[in-house]
Amino acid sequence: MSKVHVTTTVNGEEKEFLAEPRQSLLEVLRDELHLTGTKEGCNDGNCGACSVVFDGTLVCACCVLGVEANGKRVETVEGMATREGLHPLQQAFLEETGMQCGICTPGFLMASNELLKSNPNPSEQEIRFWLANNLCRCTGYDKIVKSVQKAAAVMGGA
Question: In the 3-class helix/strand/coil scheme, how is the chain assigned residue by residue?
Fold first, then answer.
């Protein structure tokens, strides 16, 4: 099977790679672009560990083909922090221990960031509803919710 040339923007930088037509965006991010922050959990779109923002929409990278990224924008967890420091969500997850093993954390960070962009002051119920597609087997979710609430307050939403 011949590979396809893809040009895309990842975390604000133009990237080029060759992808097999059947390769998922998750595989391309990890194997071709060496952006290993996005994690593989279930590989069928049910856990949210591989959540990225694809042309403005939160998606599971395991359910998008890498060739579909041609001409599109992709944002991953690696794009959250800046030279100045961690994103407020990342800092809040650290301070509130919103992660344990870390497999689900990048997906929760990406999903939470999209929530706070659209709703800067979400209620606990809204946070839980928004994050319902992201699964965690370690934390029990309370610390994740507290992390998002703290980040919302720091970012000026509360």
Answer: CCCEEEEEEECCEEEEEEECCCCEHHHHHHHHCCCCCCCCCCCCCCCCCCEEEECCEEEEHHHCEHHHHCCCEEECHHHCCECCECCHHHHHHHHCCCCCCCCCHHHHHHHHHHHHHHCCCCCHHHHHHHHHHCCCCCCCCHHHHHHHHHHHHHCCCC
How many whole angstroms separate alpha carbon 15 and alpha carbon 12? 9
The CATH number for 108's domain is 1.10.150.120
Mean pLDDT of 37-60: 97
What average pLDDT does the chain have?
96
The total number of structural domains that make up the chain? 2
Instruction: Examine the domain organization and report whether 75 and 104 are in the same domain.
Output: no
Q: What's the pLDDT tens digit per position in 72-115?
A: 999 999 999 999 999 999 999 999 999 989 999 999 999 999 99
Domain that holds residue 147: 88-154
Q: What pLDDT, on a 0 to 100 scale, did the predictor assign at position 157?
A: 63
